[in-house]
Amino acid sequence: MPSATPPAHEAPSPALARLAHACGVSTEYQSWNGQPRVCSAAAIRAALAAMDLDASDDAACERSLLELEDYVWQRMVPPVTVLTRGEGREIPVHIKHGEGVAVTLRTESGRAVQLEQLDRVVAPRGEGARAIGRATFQLPGDLPLGWHRIEAVTTGRRGRGYVVVTPERVTVPAQVRVKRPWGFATQLYSLRSSRSWGLGDFADLAELCSLAKLRAGADFVLVNPLHAGEPVAPLEASPYLPTSRRFLSPIYIRVEDIPEVAYVPSQQRAVIEWAAEAPRRANTTDDLLDRDAVWSAKSEALEQIYLTPRSEGRQAQFEAFCVREGQTLEHFATWCALREEYQGQPWPFEYINPTSAAVAAWRDAHSERVLFYAWLQWIADDQLSRAQASAKAAGMSIGVMTDLAVGVHPEGADAWAWGRVMATGISVGAPPDMYNQLGQDWSQPPWQPRALEAAAYLPFREVVRAALRHAGALRIDHVLGLFRQWWVPQGHGPSDGVYVQFDHSALVGILALEAERAGAIIIGEDLGTVEHWVTDFLNSRGILGTSIMWFEKEGENLPKVPEHYRADALASVTTHDLPPSAAYVAGEHVELREELGLLTRDVDEVRAEAAAELDAMVRLLRSRGLLREDHIDEDIVLGMHALLMETPALLAAVALTDAVGERKTQNQPGTYMEYPNWRVPLCDGNGVPVLLDDLFEHPRMQRLLAAMTGPRG
Q1: In terms of domains, do 58 and 130 share one?
Q2: How far, in Å, are 9, 236, 626 from residue 60 at the CA level?
Q3: Which of 144, 166, 188 is the C-terminal boundary of a domain?
Q4: Which residues pair with 112 in a beta bridge?
């Protein structure tokens, strides 16, 4: 998004700093070049206001500090307690001073455990009849994994919370540890086949998984986030700015693979075939991808299929899906129908709350549209499930590796459904770094940490479970967001923000629990400014890291030799936020950033740095016998991928853009409308579209696979 002009940079007062520290809001931080930076008082106040805390002046800060202390004592039991298996924990229970209380823990299996009260003397808070006492109870250390419920009962009062027991580490399957597999990475929408409707879809994903394993020996396919977007045009191009992370984008549905297509009346069937013609013609062009046109054609066809009667068995499956997803699906489908009804216009005030009587009445009056959007999710869920089944049937040890976006659109379905669990007036982003020197504003509201904890982290659990449902592995974009997030207040530029801390132990623990139950591997994208202890903590919980070859340096800024790469990581040469390697080798990444006005230093200086970086890589490849003297640019790319295979990284990913010689980047950070982010179809180095049908016959793909031949490491 375009940068805003930040307010005057006033340093925080001592009172504001005390409140900020109590809430995990930074007052200073270390920038990417090691220099200390003081956060502005305005940014700090805005972050605290988003947490429903008054920090307007020093007196307000002192009052808010007292309210924070009272808040803990006003809760009978904590809304959630997260611990690791085998860990005992003391838990406080707040009651009227002098009263007795009984506390019971009920496990997921239904077993009741009476908790033991400990002999702990804690002074009450308050005086007289309003005094609140604290009783301390012991959680046993032998609780099984899972989401257990705790209940405290005293005279006329009852309090409930969750006790979440998480594994010490996410288990990586033994066969993955031994084989250390590799796979492909792609932006699914950009990879089209002759049967696609202008964008890659779930059927293309299934086909890619099968071909990748059987033709190339790959064991996974990493795709972009498949989260739900807008139900009507205009559709947001970025898969990292969805309306919901709990549901899928129906634009990825392969229309012809829906069983009811076979029973569509012939006249309507002709309409469907006609609707597919225009988007299919676009498959063989290098024109920018047009999601609005694709969805217009596809949604028209899906409407016809939805009206076709389902068999008793299929109808029962649809109903079972709706029951399984429950109110979460009901809210999402209602939001979609409302968005369609109002076509981007402001909604009536009474529809702001999804649980209001007004929304319920509107849903009843428009039940058929709500049901249509629920049906789309059922179809999408089924087709993604089949893609993973196809990957496993072909012999992939992992299969589909999904990607979890950092957040959601501020006016999307999740923001509507969760309300105050999301911070208002704030956007998540990143401070300036070497590659994005103006900072980044991702236009996404963050979790409100106090509200998320009060909700027992259940919204976070919903997001993780949805991402893992049909995946063998999950990549967490910007995993640092589970520890801290860079909050950019509205009206401030990306450089004028604050870091806000989260209970990383709880969030990572819940992530580990859900991954363990799904049998999935977790990869955290830990690039950028990440402290060593964060990487160490993730590694201790079995969360793999991310290594990008262009970023891996040692010594005097030299490329790291493969033996020095992290073992517990997903390694690759490039990523979707960098130009493909062919463009990087040619220095086009510097020219593009200069053209877009993204450089803050002299362009000749940046060009010289890029040339020196490339020269160092060439020397490393030659020293290891991976590059001949009379090489061309393609040889450097091949050599880098051969070098990738020599690293000890548990997983290695090859970008499809590198496999065919693509030169256009999918996303240029720091831009919005200035560059066609997320709209570039997969082409080769000459700008010729490469379809899935021909992918593994492409000469460049075959040369790359030949260069990578041999055991890993």
Answers
A1: no
A2: 21, 40, 64
A3: 166
A4: 106
Report pTM. Answer: 0.94
- pLDDT score recorded for residue 2: 42
pLDDT in tens, 99-144: 999 999 999 999 999 999 999 999 999 888 889 999 999 999 999 9
* Largest pairwise CA distance in the chain: 88
pLDDT tens per residue, range 142-184: 999 999 999 999 988 999 999 999 999 999 999 999 999 999 9
Residues 61, 96, single domain; the answer is: no
Could you give the residue ranges of the DSSP H alpha helices within 33-136? 41-50, 58-74
Beta bridge partners of 475: 403, 523
Total number of domains constituting the chain: 2
**Six-digit token string for 175:** 């066969």
Q: What is the C-alpha to C-alpha distance for residues 57 and 631, in angstroms, rounded to an integer?
A: 65
| Strand stretches in 21-174, DSSP E | 28-30, 36-38, 80-84, 89-96, 102-106, 112-114, 116-117, 132-139, 146-154, 157-166
Range of the domain at 47: 14-66
422 has which bridge partners?
A: 447
Say which CATH number the domain at 103 has: 2.60.40.10
CB within 8 Å of 250: residues ≥ 6 apart: 228, 298, 299, 302, 376, 377, 379, 380
> Quick one: 42 and 96 in the same domain?
no
Q: What is the CA radius of gyration of the chain?
A: 27
- Is residue 128 domain-resident? yes
Strand ranges in 190-329 using DSSP code E only, listed in sequence order: 220-223, 227-228, 244-248
Render pLDDT for 228-285 as a digit per residue (tens, 0 to 9). 999 999 999 999 999 999 999 999 999 999 999 999 998 889 989 999 999 999 999 9
Confirm whether 151 is domain-assigned.
yes
Query: Which tokens go with 236?
Result: 């947001």
Q: Compute φ and ψ for 193, nearest 5 degrees.
A: -125, 175
Residue bearing tokens 């690293």: 647
Here the contacts of 707-712 (C-beta below 8 Å, separation 24 or greater) are 707/638, 707/639, 707/641, 707/642, 708/182, 708/641, 708/642, 708/644, 708/645, 708/654, 710/645, 712/179, 712/180, 712/181, 712/182, 712/645, 712/646, 712/652
Domain boundary among 107, 136, 166: 166
Q: How far apart are CA 699 and CA 685, in angstroms?
A: 12
Query: Which pLDDT does position 436 carry in this prediction?
Result: 72
